[in-house]
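FORM 12-B: Structure-to-Sequence Request
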C-alpha cells in the first residue's frame, strides 16, 4: 500500500515564491513562472508528462489493492475489521492521488497556453494538445457535436412543446376564470389572496430551489438538475390546474367554468412536487422530451388518484404523505425500472457520482426544504389546525435530523455521509404529512420523526444497494428511502392514530375527518388505491415513452442536452493573480510498519 519510493512529488503550487526541496519541483516552478524560453516550457511539459504517467500507474495499483481489501470484508472473514481499515486508508490515498492528477493536468494546460502565446512551433503545440485530449478522454467524454439526428430530435422537442402549450392556452381561454371574489372591488379577493400568498411563495420556492438544488449532487448534471426542475415546475403548474380543477368539478357533480385562486396554485404545486419526486429517480437518464411526456401523463394520473382518494374516499392527507410522496415515488420507481438501461456497464455510469462542490450545492437544497417544510404541510390546512400542523411538522423534522446523523455515523463506519444527511433528514416532514393535523402530541410527532429518519437512513445504506444488485433498481436520488417508505409510514400512522383516539372515546370532528369512526379504514383504502394507481399508470407511461422516444446518448451528463462552457470538462486553471496556496498537507501513512513518502496536495 506504500506509494512507490521512486515517484517524484508533483508541484501544483501557483505561487512563484513557493518551492519544494526536490530539485525537479524547483525546476518546474522556475519554468512555470520565470522562463522566457520555449525550450524550457517544452522541458516542463515533458516533466509533467512523466509525472502524469507515474501517477496514473500508481492510481491503477491502488485500485487493485482496493479490490483486494474489499474482497476481505465480510461477516465471516477473520480479518474483516483490519481489511476495512486498510480499505479506508487506500481510498483516502487514492483521493489524494486523484487530486494530484487533476492538478498535473491543470499545470500542463497552463504551460500549453504559455506555449501558444509565445507562438512556438505549431507542430509541437498540436502534438502536446493531442496528448492532453487523449489522456482526458479516459476520464470524461468531450461535448459531442450535434448531428442530423440530434437536430431532428431537438426539433421534435420544441414542436411537441409548442403544440402542448398552444392547447393549454386555448383551454385556459375557454374554461378558466378567476374566483368570483377576485373580479369584484369589495376587497374580499385581496384578503383571500394575501392569506394564501405567503404559503404559495414558500411552497414554490421549495419546488424550484429546494428540489432543484437537492438534485445537483451529480457532478456533471447541475444544469439538468436545476434547469429541468424549473421547466417541470412551470409546465406542471399550468397543466395541473386544469386537471385538478376538472377532477374537483366532477366530484361536485357539475362541470362549469374552472375557478382560479391562489389556493389553486398551491394545489398545483403539490402536483408539481409529485412529478419532481418521480424525476428524482430518472434524473440523468431521460431526455427533455421524455420528461415533458412523463410530466403530462403523470399529472393526469395524479388528478385521477386525487379524485378517488381525496374527493371520493375523503381521505385526510393534509401534507400529502400518500397522495404526493408515495404516489410520486412509486410512479418514479416504476418508470426507472422500465427506462433505465439494463446493461451493467461501469463506464456508462461513471458520472453517477458527486464531487465536493456538488454535494455542497445539494446541501443548500436540503436546508431550504427543511426550513420551509412546515409551510408545505400547513398551506391548505384550516386556520384552526394550522398551528398544530406546523408544530407537528417541525418536531418530526427535528426527530428525523437527529436520527439521521446518529445512524449515519453508526452505519458508515464512524463517519457521517452526505447522502444520508441530504435526504434522510427530511423524512420526518414526509412521514408526518398524513397526521400533521391530528392529535399526535409533541412526543408522538417527535417519535414519528425519529422512526422515519431511522428507516430512511437504513434504506440508503442497506436497502437501495440490495435492490440495485438484485433487480437493477437505479434510484438516482433515493426516492424510495426519502419519499416512498416514509410516505407509506405516514399513511399507516394516520390510521393507527385515529383508531387509538376513537378507542379512547375521543370525539371525532367530522369537519376534519368526514368519515367519522370509519376514517381509519378509509386511510388504508386510500393508501392501497394510491399504490395501485401509481404503479399501473407508471407502467403504461413507461412503456409508451420507451416505445416511441429515444433515450439520451450519455447518462448523467449535461452535454447531451445543454450548451456547456469550456470548463465543463476542464476546471478553470489558477492564474498568477490567485492567492497563494495553503501549506502542503502533512505526511500520512497507510502502512503498518513505516512512514510513507509525503504527497504534496497544496
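FORM 12-B RESPONSE
SEQUENCE OUT:
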Amino acid at each position: 500500500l506504500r506509494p512507490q519510493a521512486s515517484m517524484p512529488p508533483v508541484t501544483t503550487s501557483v505561487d512563484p515564491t513557493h518551492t519544494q526541496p526536490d530539485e525537479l519541483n524547483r525546476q518546474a516552478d522556475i519554468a512555470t513562472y520565470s522562463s522566457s524560453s520555449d525550450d524550457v516550457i517544452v522541458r516542463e511539459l515533458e516533466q509533467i508528462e512523466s509525472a502524469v504517467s507515474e501517477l496514473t500507474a500508481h492510481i491503477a495499483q491502488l485500485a487493485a489493492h482496493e479490490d483486494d481489501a474489499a474482497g476481505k470484508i465480510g461477516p465471516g472473514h477473520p480479518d474483516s475489521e483490519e481489511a476495512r481499515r486498510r480499505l479506508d486508508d487506500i481510498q483516502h490515498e487514492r483521493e489524494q492521488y486523484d487530486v494530484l492528477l487533476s492538478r498535473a493536468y491543470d499545470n500542463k494546460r497552463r504551460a500549453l497556453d504559455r506555449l501558444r502565446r509565445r507562438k512556438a512551433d505549431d507542430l509541437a503545440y498540436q502534438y502536446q494538445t493531442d496528448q492532453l485530449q487523449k489522456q482526458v478522454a479516459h476520464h470524461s467524454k468531450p461535448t459531442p457535436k450535434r448531428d442530423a439526428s440530434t437536430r431532428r430530435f431537438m426539433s421534435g422537442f420544441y414542436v411537441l412543446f409548442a403544440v402542448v402549450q398552444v392547447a393549454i392556452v386555448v383551454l385556459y381561454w375557454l374554461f378558466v376564470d378567476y374566483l368570483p371574489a377576485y373580479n369584484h372591488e369589495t376587497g374580499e379577493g385581496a384578503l383571500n389572496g394575501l392569506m394564501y400568498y405567503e404559503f404559495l411563495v414558500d411552497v414554490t420556492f421549495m419546488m424550484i430551489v429546494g428540489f432543484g438544488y437537492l438534485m445537483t449532487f451529480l457532478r456533471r448534471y447541475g444544469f439538468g438538475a436545476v434547469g429541468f426542475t424549473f421547466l417541470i415546475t412551470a409546465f406542471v403548474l399550468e397543466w395541473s390546474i386544469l386537471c385538478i380543477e376538472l377532477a374537483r368539478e366532477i366530484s361536485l357533480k357539475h362541470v362549469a367554468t374552472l375557478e382560479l385562486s391562489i389556493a389553486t396554485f398551491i394545489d398545483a404545486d403539490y402536483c408539481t412536487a409529485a412529478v419532481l419526486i418521480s424525476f428524482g429517480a430518472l434524473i440523468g437518464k431521460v431526455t427533455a422530451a421524455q420528461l415533458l411526456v412523463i410530466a403530462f401523463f403523470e399529472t393526469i394520473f395524479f388528478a385521477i388518484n386525487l379524485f378517488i382518494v381525496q374527493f371520493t374516499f375523503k381521505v385526510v392527507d393534509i401534507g400529502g404523505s400518500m397522495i404526493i410522496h408515495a404516489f410520486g415515488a412509486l410512479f418514479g420507481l416504476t418508470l426507472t425500472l422500465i427506462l433505465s438501461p439494463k446493461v451493467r456497464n461501469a463506464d456508462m455510469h461513471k458520472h453517477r457520482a458527486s464531487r465536493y462542490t456538488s454535494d455542497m450545492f445539494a446541501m443548500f437544497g436540503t436546508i431550504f426544504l427543511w426550513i420551509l417544510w412546515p409551510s408545505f404541510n400547513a398551506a391548505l390546512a384550516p386556520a384552526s389546525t394550522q398551528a398544530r400542523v406546523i408544530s407537528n411538522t417541525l418536531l418530526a423534522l427535528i426527530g428525523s435530523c437527529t436520527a439521521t446523523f446518529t445512524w449515519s455515523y453508526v452505519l458508515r463506519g464512524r463517519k457521517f455521509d452526505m447522502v444520508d444527511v441530504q435526504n434522510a433528514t427530511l423524512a420526518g416532514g414526509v412521514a408526518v404529512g398524513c397526521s400533521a393535523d391530528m392529535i399526535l402530541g409533541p412526543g408522538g410527532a417527535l417519535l414519528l420523526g425519529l422512526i422515519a429518519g431511522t428507516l430512511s437512513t437504513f434504506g440508503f445504506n442497506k436497502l437501495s444497494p440490495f435492490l440495485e444488485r438484485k433487480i437493477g433498481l437505479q434510484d438516482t436520488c433515493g426516492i424510495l428511502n426519502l419519499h416512498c417508505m416514509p410516505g407509506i409510514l405516514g399513511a399507516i400512522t394516520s390510521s393507527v392514530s385515529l383508531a387509538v383516539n376513537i378507542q379512547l372515546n375521543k370525539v371525532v370532528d367530522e369537519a376534519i375527518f368526514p368519515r367519522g369512526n370509519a376514517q381509519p379504514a378509509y386511510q388504508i383504502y386510500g393508501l392501497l388505491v394510491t399504490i395501485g394507481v401509481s404503479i399501473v399508470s407508471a407502467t403504461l407511461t413507461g412503456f409508451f415513452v420507451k416505445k416511441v422516444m429515444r433515450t439520451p446518448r450519455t447518462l448523467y451528463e449535461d452535454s447531451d442536452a445543454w450548451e456547456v462552457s469550456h470548463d465543463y470538462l476542464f476546471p478553470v486553471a489558477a492564474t498568477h493573480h490567485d492567492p497563494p496556496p495553503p501549506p502542503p498537507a502533512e505526511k500520512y501513512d497507510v502502512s503498518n510498519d513505516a512512514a510513507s513518502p509525503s504527497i504534496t496536495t497544496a
